[in-house]
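Write out the bound-state structure for pyridoxal-5'-phosphate.
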Amino acid sequence: MTVLVFLDPSAPDGRIADASKPTLMATDQGATRGDGVFESLLVVGGTPRKPQAHLDRLDSSARAMDLQIPSQDAWRRAMTTAVTEFRRNRASARAGGAVGAGGTGEDSRMSATENIPDEMVLKLIVTRGVEGSTIPTAWVQASEPPATGRAQRESGIDVLLLERGYDSSIAERAPWLLLGAKTLSYAVNMAALRYARVHGADDVIFTSGDGRVLEGPTSSVLLAHAEGGGPDRVKRLITPQLDSGILPGTSQGALFTAAKAAGWELGYGPVEPGDLFDADGVWLISSIRLLAPVNHIDGREIGSPGVRAGLTAELNQLIHDAE
Ligand SMILES: Cc1ncc(COP(=O)(O)O)c(C=O)c1O
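---
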């Protein structure tokens, strides 16, 4: 069940399209070159999480590639339409009724998902438009979150360190690499994930040519240390430097704000692989899967299961309480 809402000047709240029918021109530069930007955000109970941070990052990604995109107000309206339509379709599918206009089948299986949290994924996608045109193509896609992500929040993940090949200062020297932008060109990121799975792992942490820890293919990296006990307990949360050619994570940003308010010490890299192995906990964090505890990196256990679980519970509480 996927809902598509195209941003269209003639439809201020967006134009719902049938996701089971072709809707994109074959010459769209998003399809032919991966020339565009996107955002993925989680909607819980009908409310998008940290929409402003995602809209701001969409703007900054678009600026990095000289792409004119619709206003934040137009995105917000289309998001509201997509959320309303998706929830309406899901409710009617759960009730065993017909899926309404703009819905796309896949109905009776929904009743089996009733005890799953009320979550959906919104993707905001904008491309440079069809070849020869100057009008971007922009749409919002609403869909079910992948079940694997939910499972990995609980079970944790095994990770491989893989080289990305660039050094950690390349982003400033070579802005055309678009390293801090969330572009549609994710083929390399997906290839890294496939490589990890073929080699018995669930996910990846990229390292730079100069030996720094960077990010996951679809997530930010966090590590934590906890020292002492009781009221003197010191907890430190660290993430790689945001200017080292990584995407500034909206989830990492929101968690750091909440952790600071809760008395955690914060640090921004540089992080080296040895720091991950010395940590009490390592996590990959992103908007849809949220916090995935890392059990092993390159086959080596990170921290101890008990400490990892305790810190994970504390961080999950902070994420839950954050906007
Ligand atoms: C490369 C990369 N880094 C980090 C993140 C985490 O960003 P966010 O927390 O905003 O989802 C993502 C999210 O998809 C990503 O693709």
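---
The longest strand covers residues 36-44.
Residues 40, 215, 218-220, 247, 249-252, 286-287 surround pyridoxal-5'-phosphate (CB under 6 Å).
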